[in-house]
């Protein structure tokens, strides 16, 4: 009886470790994939997810990416320019 429980516990541990290991592999794949879609902001040089950057093609080959913070700063600079002119 004790032997059976011991075997059952060992089997459970083996199954658990297989699932745990599989989960770790999945996690690694998930963390590696988004890394490739990260891009640098042209202005501040910070690294962001591609979805969080505004993309602008300038000329034929140049593509620039801007983060929300830099766009906000640009907008504020523009407002300051306008208020100086008026
Ligand atoms: Zn930026």
Question: Keywords for this structure?
Answer:
alpha+beta; binds zinc ion; 86 residues; two-stranded antiparallel ribbon
Query: How many domains, in number, for the residues?
Result: 2
Going across the major beta sheet, what is the strand order?
1-2
Query: Based on helices, strands and strand pairing, what is the structural class?
Result: alpha+beta
Query: Distance between termini?
Result: 91 Å
The Rg value, from CA coordinates, equals 26 Å
- Overall 3D shape: rod-shaped
SSE arrangement, N to C = HEEEEH
Mean pLDDT: 85
Task: Count the DSSP helices.
Answer: 2
| Number of β-strand runs | 4
Molecular structure report:
The protein folds into 2 domains: 1-36; 37-86, no CATH class. The protein starts with a helix and ends with a helix. It has helices at residues 2-36, 68-85; strands spanning 38-40, 47-49, 54-58, 62-66. With 86 residues, it is an alpha+beta fold. It has a two-stranded antiparallel ribbon with strand order 1-2. Strands 3-4 form a two-stranded antiparallel sheet. Helix content is 62%, strand content 19%. It has 2 helices and 4 strands, in the order αββββα. Zinc ion binds at residues 41, 43-44, 46, 67, 69-70.
